[in-house]
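User: Run a structure prediction on this.
Assistant: Running it now.
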Amino acid sequence: MKKDTKRNNVIIGTLLVILAFMIIGFISLNNQLEESNSNNNSKLEKKNNWNTAILSVEKNKELSTENVVELMKPEFTGTAFSFHVGLPVASKVVYDVKIKNKGTMDSKFKNTLGVEGFNQQEPTVIQCKIEKINPEENLMIGAIHSFRVTISREYISDEILKKGGTIYFEYQ
């Protein structure tokens, strides 16, 4: 009987040691899986980054009339472009706007906002028109869309009229 008790104690002790190693192994494996999953999620977040923004705004000197007064240099942030100009009779200023997809997922051009409101503001003889230079709607990763923004004035009076506004290029 003493033999059986001693043997049972050895078997139980061995099973407890094996069980302890299994618990330690499970905890270690679980921690590694959580870290791996966390790293994969952060890689996915970095991978699916949407970042479409204006890259540059340049006055097109060939298409603009010489007598235009820029009361404020064009400013841009994100996909918003602001300007303030003084236009004599029958004059226009033309800006070439380049928008780049700096993100890690494709985007799609949806619309421009602010043009209609600008055109309805006084003085209404100064109007804004936007022309999309490259016709594709999708803006692939690293690609650039080009727009031509024309602010022009009809002949009404001889004085210089001033007007400013902000145009938004909407992407989804």
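The longest helix spans residues 2-47.
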